[in-house]
Amino acid sequence: MRLGAIEAGGTKFVCGIGTEQGEVIERISIPTTTPEETLEQVIGFFKTREVDALGVGSFGPVDLDHASPTYGYITSTPKRHWNSFNLVGELKKRFSVPIGFDTDVNAAALGESVWGAAKGLDSCLYMTVGTGIGVGAVSEGKLVHGMLHPEMGHILVRRHEEDPFRGSCPFHGDCLEGMAAGPAIEARWGTKGVELAGDSKVWELEAYYLAQALVNYILILSPKKIIIGGGVMKQEQLFPLVREQTVKLLNGYIQHDNLLKTIDQYIVPPGLGDNAGLCGALALAKGL
Amino acid sequence: MRLGAIEAGGTKFVCGIGTEQGEVIERISIPTTTPEETLEQVIGFFKTREVDALGVGSFGPVDLDHASPTYGYITSTPKRHWNSFNLVGELKKRFSVPIGFDTDVNAAALGESVWGAAKGLDSCLYMTVGTGIGVGAVSEGKLVHGMLHPEMGHILVRRHEEDPFRGSCPFHGDCLEGMAAGPAIEARWGTKGVELAGDSKVWELEAYYLAQALVNYILILSPKKIIIGGGVMKQEQLFPLVREQTVKLLNGYIQHDNLLKTIDQYIVPPGLGDNAGLCGALALAKGL
């Protein structure tokens, strides 16, 4: 069985061909411009490569309600041209194979639970910290959806008392994304995070916000593994700081070895590395 | 089919007999003293009343991992005598019927989704605000568990800038439970909440904390219905305040009619009223 995968991102669409074992055989990266231009290239890639199913992990918000007339749409995105775009519908016009569709981060969570850091577990959480903060989750063996899909990047956090930064989220100001995504780091310190690698203050503050989010995710979803990827997490010094702050904030309330003894194996980078998103889309296709 | 239900609480065990339709035929309330005394009365009630299955919704923390040697135990509770008590094991010694076991609030969430305010929905959240704050959830048709069960009453909230109260949670100080459970209200104002019914400051502050929690639950789990019960919520003036604050904090980010148009039907009291807990235990039995 050959599977097709599309990681539909705000700056690029990564398309790939892979196997049921999660092996990526071929991949291509297409810039995200207008839907017409981008989709033309996506369709061009797949039309010469036969697949049995297609998985699409997309930037959002997206409509995942199969009963909705706008199922498969990218909905109220501020991204010009893509607002109310029928992504699944356009793909269905060209390809007659089953198409799986979810958020990019739910797809990545699924991929990690099938082939990656949470392999064999029926619950995990995948967070990406980059130009935004997105989070997907598997709970009881299923991707979490409800009224809509999760939007966990926007949860409320407590401002650090020595942090005067107002926050960069256009909706909430100082929510998690507004305080801890890449653009927030740059706006707060006047320099991109990658150039601040050696400044411990920067990463201690970053860990302070990320750990608050993890504490709430743990108390609400109780994931069996927490996986954090994205550009900001390339600063690997963040991992020990985030782990330490998470344990400190929970203060012994959750009695589990994952937190008390083996936190180094509980809060981890993606097992699939930079392939988490594309493999996630493959996993959506595999599940069809 | 006759079902048995036990709502195992820290101050009382409510036992009942009911039907698959969620009708409670008979009930009894037993004070929670020592496990020996309390269980003797529980067993006495059920031994003269034949049931086909038994559901137990218990105060926690509890061990719900079927693979664990302490499955069915109440674990690290500060409640004297009940720490590491094998509740399901003791019941199994006396009754040979299948026994369903979960947290009291997960049971209530299930009961509400089967017969109550969330009837017919595959996702909902049940929060009780009383001597503590407990929350259970159904997501994708299943009760949420993972590493452990959720402990959502302890999520982090932002202190109101005019609230000097330090918080009453022995683990976290000013977490949600520490700021908004009944004992926190009493400690902050020097009087029980029930005697402060007419003081709008009290309930605006209470709604400020509860709404923060709901915002995070919505962003993380996206429940299709939010049900709030417990002693503190007998102050019905809280509901409109909580709804208003929730909408204000989300600030239009979640585009759904539940929030934008019909919030009065989205954040609601238990459909099963004070029977939510007992009916929840019945629902656990029904699911076996």
From TrEMBL, chains A, B:
Report the EC number(s), separated by commas if there are several. 2.7.1.4
Its needed co-factors are: Mg(2+)
Gene Ontology MF terms: ATP binding; fructokinase activity; metal ion binding
For this protein, the record's CDD domains field holds: ASKHA_NBD_ROK_BsFRK-like (cd24067)
Q: Catalytic activity annotated for this protein?
A: D-fructose + ATP = D-fructose 6-phosphate + ADP + H(+)
* PROSITE patterns named in the record: ROK
Q: Which Pfam families match?
A: ROK
Q: Which UniProt keywords apply?
A: ATP-binding, Carbohydrate metabolism, Kinase, Magnesium, Metal-binding, Nucleotide-binding, Transferase, Zinc
InterPro entries on file = ATPase_NBD, Carb_Metab_Reg_Kinase/Isom, ROK, ROK_cs
Q: Which domain of life is it from?
A: Bacteria
Major enzyme class: transferase
Alphabetical list of PANTHER family matching this protein: FRUCTOKINASE, TRANSCRIPTIONAL REPRESSOR MPRA
Similarity field = Belongs to the ROK (NagC/XylR) family.
Identification of the protein by name: fructokinase
